[in-house]
Specification:
By secondary structure, the protein is mostly helical. It has helices spanning about 5-30, 30-55, 60-85, 90-100, 100-110, 120-140, 145-165, 165-170, 175-200, 205-235, 235-240, 245-260, 265-285. The protein is built from 13 helices and no strands. The longest helix has 29 residues, at about 205-235.
Amino acid sequence: MDIKAIIMGLTFALMWSSAFTSARVIVEYAPPLTALALRFLISGLIGVGIASALGQSMRLTQRQWTGVLVFGICQNALYLGLNFVAMQTIAASLAAIIASTMPLLVALAGWLVFGTKVKPLGLAGLVAGLVGVTLIMGARVQGGVDLFGLGLCVLGVISLTVATMAVLGASSGGNVLMIVGLQMLVGSVALWGPALILEDMIVTWNWQLIVAFIYTTLVPGLGATLIWFLLVGRIGAVRASTFHFLNPFFGVFIAALLLSERVGVLDIVGVVIIAAGILAVQLSKQS
Protein backbone atom coordinates (compact mmCIF):
# COMPACT_ATOMS: atom_id res chain seq x y z
CA MET A 1 0.00 0.00 0.00
CA ASP A 2 1.61 3.27 -1.13
CA ILE A 3 1.57 6.63 0.65
CA LYS A 4 -1.12 8.01 -1.67
CA ALA A 5 -3.45 5.14 -0.81
CA ILE A 6 -2.81 5.69 2.92
CA ILE A 7 -3.64 9.40 2.62
CA MET A 8 -6.78 8.58 0.63
CA GLY A 9 -7.85 6.03 3.24
CA LEU A 10 -7.31 8.37 6.18
CA THR A 11 -9.14 11.17 4.38
CA PHE A 12 -12.06 8.88 3.57
CA ALA A 13 -12.34 7.66 7.17
CA LEU A 14 -12.32 11.21 8.54
CA MET A 15 -14.89 12.45 5.99
CA TRP A 16 -17.16 9.42 6.42
CA SER A 17 -17.08 9.62 10.22
CA SER A 18 -17.86 13.35 10.27
CA ALA A 19 -21.13 12.76 8.40
CA PHE A 20 -22.90 11.61 11.58
CA THR A 21 -22.21 14.88 13.38
CA SER A 22 -23.33 17.08 10.49
CA ALA A 23 -26.41 14.88 9.99
CA ARG A 24 -27.33 15.26 13.67
CA VAL A 25 -27.31 19.03 13.20
CA ILE A 26 -29.45 18.84 10.05
CA VAL A 27 -32.21 16.68 11.54
CA GLU A 28 -32.51 19.04 14.49
CA TYR A 29 -33.74 21.82 12.21
CA ALA A 30 -35.20 20.10 9.11
CA PRO A 31 -37.24 16.99 8.18
CA PRO A 32 -34.66 14.20 7.75
CA LEU A 33 -35.85 12.42 4.59
CA THR A 34 -36.56 15.66 2.73
CA ALA A 35 -33.15 17.07 3.65
CA LEU A 36 -31.43 13.86 2.57
CA ALA A 37 -33.34 13.63 -0.72
CA LEU A 38 -32.39 17.24 -1.51
CA ARG A 39 -28.78 16.58 -0.55
CA PHE A 40 -28.55 13.62 -2.92
CA LEU A 41 -30.22 15.56 -5.70
CA ILE A 42 -27.67 18.38 -5.43
CA SER A 43 -24.67 16.07 -4.97
CA GLY A 44 -25.80 13.83 -7.82
CA LEU A 45 -26.31 16.71 -10.26
CA ILE A 46 -22.90 18.15 -9.35
CA GLY A 47 -21.22 14.77 -9.76
CA VAL A 48 -22.88 13.99 -13.10
CA GLY A 49 -22.19 17.52 -14.36
CA ILE A 50 -18.48 17.40 -13.52
CA ALA A 51 -18.19 13.86 -14.90
CA SER A 52 -19.80 14.95 -18.18
CA ALA A 53 -17.42 17.92 -18.41
CA LEU A 54 -14.51 15.49 -17.95
CA GLY A 55 -15.78 13.35 -20.80
CA GLN A 56 -17.17 10.49 -18.72
CA SER A 57 -20.12 8.64 -20.19
CA MET A 58 -23.45 7.34 -18.88
CA ARG A 59 -23.00 4.29 -21.09
CA LEU A 60 -22.23 1.86 -18.28
CA THR A 61 -21.99 -1.90 -18.38
CA GLN A 62 -24.85 -4.00 -17.05
CA ARG A 63 -22.73 -4.87 -14.02
CA GLN A 64 -22.08 -1.20 -13.34
CA TRP A 65 -25.78 -0.29 -13.62
CA THR A 66 -26.67 -3.09 -11.22
CA GLY A 67 -24.10 -1.83 -8.76
CA VAL A 68 -25.33 1.75 -9.13
CA LEU A 69 -28.92 0.74 -8.39
CA VAL A 70 -28.06 -1.51 -5.45
CA PHE A 71 -25.61 1.00 -3.99
CA GLY A 72 -27.97 3.92 -4.51
CA ILE A 73 -30.94 2.20 -2.89
CA CYS A 74 -29.22 0.24 -0.11
CA GLN A 75 -26.65 2.82 1.00
CA ASN A 76 -28.19 6.15 0.10
CA ALA A 77 -31.92 5.56 0.48
CA LEU A 78 -32.09 2.82 3.13
CA TYR A 79 -28.92 3.13 5.21
CA LEU A 80 -28.69 6.92 5.29
CA GLY A 81 -32.47 7.40 5.30
CA LEU A 82 -32.86 5.17 8.35
CA ASN A 83 -29.90 6.84 10.07
CA PHE A 84 -31.20 10.36 9.43
CA VAL A 85 -34.57 9.45 10.95
CA ALA A 86 -32.91 7.67 13.87
CA MET A 87 -30.65 10.60 14.71
CA GLN A 88 -33.66 12.65 15.68
CA THR A 89 -33.64 10.66 18.93
CA ILE A 90 -30.19 9.06 19.33
CA ALA A 91 -26.67 10.45 19.58
CA ALA A 92 -24.45 10.86 16.53
CA SER A 93 -21.67 8.93 18.29
CA LEU A 94 -23.93 5.88 18.77
CA ALA A 95 -25.02 5.97 15.11
CA ALA A 96 -21.36 6.14 14.07
CA ILE A 97 -20.43 3.18 16.27
CA ILE A 98 -23.24 1.01 14.88
CA ALA A 99 -22.39 1.92 11.29
CA SER A 100 -18.72 1.16 11.88
CA THR A 101 -19.55 -2.51 12.48
CA MET A 102 -20.26 -2.91 8.76
CA PRO A 103 -16.91 -4.65 7.96
CA LEU A 104 -17.67 -7.19 10.68
CA LEU A 105 -21.10 -7.85 9.18
CA VAL A 106 -19.58 -8.22 5.71
CA ALA A 107 -17.16 -10.84 7.03
CA LEU A 108 -19.92 -12.59 8.99
CA ALA A 109 -22.23 -12.67 5.95
CA GLY A 110 -19.44 -14.05 3.79
CA TRP A 111 -18.82 -16.80 6.33
CA LEU A 112 -22.45 -17.77 7.07
CA VAL A 113 -24.12 -17.14 3.71
CA PHE A 114 -21.42 -17.72 1.11
CA GLY A 115 -19.23 -20.20 2.98
CA THR A 116 -16.12 -18.01 2.81
CA LYS A 117 -13.30 -19.44 4.89
CA VAL A 118 -12.37 -17.26 7.87
CA LYS A 119 -8.92 -17.54 9.41
CA PRO A 120 -8.47 -17.75 13.21
CA LEU A 121 -7.48 -14.07 13.30
CA GLY A 122 -10.71 -13.19 11.51
CA LEU A 123 -12.79 -15.27 13.92
CA ALA A 124 -11.11 -13.55 16.84
CA GLY A 125 -11.95 -10.21 15.25
CA LEU A 126 -15.62 -11.16 14.87
CA VAL A 127 -15.81 -12.22 18.51
CA ALA A 128 -14.09 -9.02 19.62
CA GLY A 129 -16.49 -6.93 17.56
CA LEU A 130 -19.47 -8.70 19.13
CA VAL A 131 -18.07 -8.08 22.62
CA GLY A 132 -17.48 -4.40 21.88
CA VAL A 133 -20.97 -3.88 20.51
CA THR A 134 -22.50 -5.70 23.50
CA LEU A 135 -20.64 -3.44 25.94
CA ILE A 136 -21.77 -0.26 24.23
CA MET A 137 -25.36 -1.37 23.66
CA GLY A 138 -25.70 -2.57 27.24
CA ALA A 139 -24.48 0.75 28.60
CA ARG A 140 -26.69 2.81 26.24
CA VAL A 141 -29.84 0.74 26.89
CA GLN A 142 -29.36 1.13 30.63
CA GLY A 143 -28.90 4.84 30.04
CA GLY A 144 -32.32 5.08 28.37
CA VAL A 145 -31.49 5.11 24.64
CA ASP A 146 -34.45 5.28 22.25
CA LEU A 147 -34.90 1.66 21.14
CA PHE A 148 -36.82 2.58 17.98
CA GLY A 149 -33.98 4.81 16.81
CA LEU A 150 -31.49 2.12 17.76
CA GLY A 151 -33.40 -0.43 15.69
CA LEU A 152 -33.42 1.89 12.67
CA CYS A 153 -29.62 2.19 12.88
CA VAL A 154 -29.26 -1.59 13.01
CA LEU A 155 -31.46 -1.98 9.93
CA GLY A 156 -29.41 0.75 8.28
CA VAL A 157 -26.07 -0.96 8.82
CA ILE A 158 -27.50 -4.19 7.38
CA SER A 159 -28.44 -2.23 4.24
CA LEU A 160 -24.94 -0.71 4.18
CA THR A 161 -23.48 -4.22 4.32
CA VAL A 162 -25.45 -5.23 1.22
CA ALA A 163 -24.33 -2.04 -0.54
CA THR A 164 -20.69 -2.66 0.31
CA MET A 165 -20.83 -6.18 -1.08
CA ALA A 166 -22.08 -4.65 -4.35
CA VAL A 167 -19.50 -1.87 -4.58
CA LEU A 168 -17.02 -3.84 -6.68
CA GLY A 169 -19.55 -4.22 -9.46
CA ALA A 170 -20.20 -0.49 -9.44
CA SER A 171 -16.60 0.68 -9.36
CA SER A 172 -14.99 -1.49 -12.04
CA GLY A 173 -14.76 -0.33 -15.64
CA GLY A 174 -14.09 3.41 -15.30
CA ASN A 175 -16.49 6.39 -15.25
CA VAL A 176 -16.07 6.57 -11.47
CA LEU A 177 -17.37 10.11 -10.89
CA MET A 178 -20.34 9.48 -13.20
CA ILE A 179 -21.18 6.35 -11.21
CA VAL A 180 -20.96 8.27 -7.93
CA GLY A 181 -23.31 10.95 -9.25
CA LEU A 182 -25.79 8.45 -10.64
CA GLN A 183 -26.03 6.39 -7.47
CA MET A 184 -26.78 9.58 -5.55
CA LEU A 185 -29.57 10.46 -7.97
CA VAL A 186 -30.95 6.93 -7.47
CA GLY A 187 -31.01 7.55 -3.73
CA SER A 188 -32.72 10.90 -4.21
CA VAL A 189 -35.47 9.42 -6.39
CA ALA A 190 -36.07 6.63 -3.86
CA LEU A 191 -36.37 9.09 -0.96
CA TRP A 192 -38.64 11.78 -2.40
CA GLY A 193 -41.78 9.62 -2.22
CA PRO A 194 -41.50 8.74 1.50
CA ALA A 195 -40.37 12.30 2.29
CA LEU A 196 -43.40 13.93 0.67
CA ILE A 197 -45.83 11.41 2.17
CA LEU A 198 -44.48 11.14 5.72
CA GLU A 199 -42.99 14.52 6.54
CA ASP A 200 -44.18 18.08 7.12
CA MET A 201 -42.06 20.74 5.43
CA ILE A 202 -41.16 22.58 8.62
CA VAL A 203 -37.63 24.02 8.53
CA THR A 204 -35.91 26.19 11.13
CA TRP A 205 -33.52 28.26 9.03
CA ASN A 206 -30.25 29.24 10.71
CA TRP A 207 -26.53 29.26 9.92
CA GLN A 208 -25.96 25.89 11.65
CA LEU A 209 -28.40 24.16 9.30
CA ILE A 210 -26.99 25.86 6.19
CA VAL A 211 -23.36 25.07 7.06
CA ALA A 212 -24.14 21.47 8.03
CA PHE A 213 -26.16 20.91 4.84
CA ILE A 214 -23.49 22.32 2.53
CA TYR A 215 -20.77 20.36 4.34
CA THR A 216 -22.75 17.10 4.25
CA THR A 217 -23.59 17.54 0.57
CA LEU A 218 -20.04 18.23 -0.61
CA VAL A 219 -17.68 16.49 1.83
CA PRO A 220 -19.12 13.20 3.15
CA GLY A 221 -21.69 13.05 0.35
CA LEU A 222 -19.69 13.66 -2.80
CA GLY A 223 -16.05 13.77 -1.66
CA ALA A 224 -15.93 10.70 0.61
CA THR A 225 -17.87 8.54 -1.84
CA LEU A 226 -15.59 9.48 -4.72
CA ILE A 227 -12.45 8.82 -2.65
CA TRP A 228 -13.84 5.43 -1.58
CA PHE A 229 -14.49 4.32 -5.15
CA LEU A 230 -11.03 5.50 -6.23
CA LEU A 231 -9.41 3.79 -3.26
CA VAL A 232 -11.18 0.49 -4.02
CA GLY A 233 -10.02 0.77 -7.62
CA ARG A 234 -6.44 1.49 -6.50
CA ILE A 235 -5.84 -1.14 -3.80
CA GLY A 236 -8.92 -3.39 -3.88
CA ALA A 237 -11.97 -3.65 -1.62
CA VAL A 238 -10.27 -5.82 1.02
CA ARG A 239 -7.34 -3.50 1.68
CA ALA A 240 -9.51 -0.39 1.39
CA SER A 241 -11.90 -1.75 4.02
CA THR A 242 -9.03 -1.84 6.53
CA PHE A 243 -9.48 1.90 7.01
CA HIS A 244 -12.94 1.30 8.46
CA PHE A 245 -11.30 0.41 11.76
CA LEU A 246 -10.69 4.15 12.23
CA ASN A 247 -14.37 5.06 11.92
CA PRO A 248 -15.39 4.29 15.52
CA PHE A 249 -12.60 6.54 16.83
CA PHE A 250 -13.26 9.40 14.43
CA GLY A 251 -17.05 9.20 14.77
CA VAL A 252 -17.05 9.37 18.56
CA PHE A 253 -14.28 11.99 18.72
CA ILE A 254 -15.93 14.39 16.25
CA ALA A 255 -19.36 14.08 17.91
CA ALA A 256 -17.85 14.72 21.35
CA LEU A 257 -15.80 17.68 20.07
CA LEU A 258 -18.48 19.48 18.05
CA LEU A 259 -21.73 18.38 19.73
CA SER A 260 -20.42 17.92 23.29
CA GLU A 261 -21.91 14.42 23.39
CA ARG A 262 -21.12 12.51 26.54
CA VAL A 263 -18.88 9.49 26.06
CA GLY A 264 -18.69 6.98 28.91
CA VAL A 265 -15.92 4.59 29.91
CA LEU A 266 -17.74 1.59 28.44
CA ASP A 267 -18.18 3.51 25.18
CA ILE A 268 -14.43 4.07 24.94
CA VAL A 269 -13.62 0.46 25.82
CA GLY A 270 -16.21 -0.80 23.35
CA VAL A 271 -14.91 1.45 20.56
CA VAL A 272 -11.35 0.19 21.08
CA ILE A 273 -12.50 -3.44 21.03
CA ILE A 274 -14.65 -2.93 17.91
CA ALA A 275 -11.79 -1.16 16.11
CA ALA A 276 -9.41 -3.99 17.03
CA GLY A 277 -11.95 -6.53 15.77
CA ILE A 278 -12.42 -4.72 12.46
CA LEU A 279 -8.66 -4.50 11.97
CA ALA A 280 -8.20 -8.19 12.79
CA VAL A 281 -10.93 -9.22 10.33
CA GLN A 282 -9.48 -7.12 7.53
CA LEU A 283 -5.89 -8.25 8.16
CA SER A 284 -7.02 -11.88 8.13
CA LYS A 285 -8.29 -11.41 4.55
CA GLN A 286 -4.94 -10.22 3.25
CA SER A 287 -2.42 -12.69 1.92
